[in-house]
Amino acid sequence: MAKKWSTRLIHSDAQVPAGFRSLNTPVYRASTVLFPNAAAVSDEWDQYEYGYTYGLYGTPTVLELAARIGELEGGYRTLLTPGGQSAISLINLALLKAGDHILVPHSIYGPNRLFAGHMLRQFGVEATFYDPLFGEEMRALMRPNTRLVWTESPGSVTMEVQDIPTICRVAHDAGAMVVLDNTWAAGVLFDAFAHEVDISMQALTKYVGGHSDLLLGSVTAKEKQVFDRLGAAQQLLGLAVSPDDASLALRGLKTMAVRLKTIEQSALELARWLAAREEVELVLHPALESCPGHAFWKRDFTGSAGVFSVVFRREFSKEQVLGFVDALQLFEIGYSWAGVTSLAVAYYFCGNKNRPDYGHRIVRLNIGLEDADDLREDLASALAGMHS
Ligand SMILES: Cc1ncc(COP(=O)(O)O)c(C=O)c1O
User: I want to staple 35 with a disulfide (CB 3.0 to 4.6 A). Which of 40, 62, 192, 302 is the partner?
Assistant: First the structure.
């Protein structure tokens, strides 16, 4: 058929050589996915079962990343979401209905707690917040309508390591599923499914991405039936993932082992050094005995990551703690973590009967890939400034 140039812009006969091979997964961008004939058209979300139908459910770039996370975590299959928080909301919205009850540790990532306490409540789901160090004590909290037990180990900022096997046993006895936010362990330093967790989610934004330039989440289910419920909900919620971000995350995965190793060594060295400083009351690093739940870390984890918190002694005012953060030269100030740049953020935990009384004295550090000696020097000079 003879084509005008404007048609050729869309339907070209140009040829390129075949046989190109690269070490990298190509970036397939698409909303429309082509069908071979009119009868083959379908809007099924499960691309494994039905083949590719629509970009929303993942192009090969997105599915490649999902499959690799699933391979590392060892579950049935993995879904990706546009960020860690949307992985959290997907799990809740897919698996809960009005009249259900869930258990959430006090130490969970803040927006996860807010989702449970505010949004789920609007939909008639009740959340009870529990002490992250509970094990058998969880039995008393289980109700006939308890569907999900959320866990995050270690917890955000306060870093409590949880007794996941015991929580799973108690939850399963009561007919509830256990979800783990496995972000700190990057899905590799803690084997969620070997410890009986039902769903493991991660903010791939952190160690998988690894360079502070993308937002992605993953949800890995142990059972097909749970994966199917999550996938069906993802279709209705329209949680599309960018193939460009997936491609960056695939690149991040290749260097994750060496990044984690160096970060682990530097973080441990700095945590131990900080623990010996007179200004510091407590270092909340899972590999240190001073961290609540350290024995569970020792029993269940195969390594440690680069995020931990420091609690200053009571005599230091809020201004002095903020002054310490501001005085750091190499540590930047900002949310998120697990990138190559060291970060410091001061938090506020007011004491109540359910939370440790750290007040304004707690600072979370993310250790990056800078030289550990330089980071120690930076911390030393900021600590010295607290006395002036
Ligand atoms: C433990 C944990 N889970 C989930 C999230 C949410 O991830 P995202 O920022 O990709 O939405 C974060 C982000 O800080 C986190 O620290």
Answer: 40
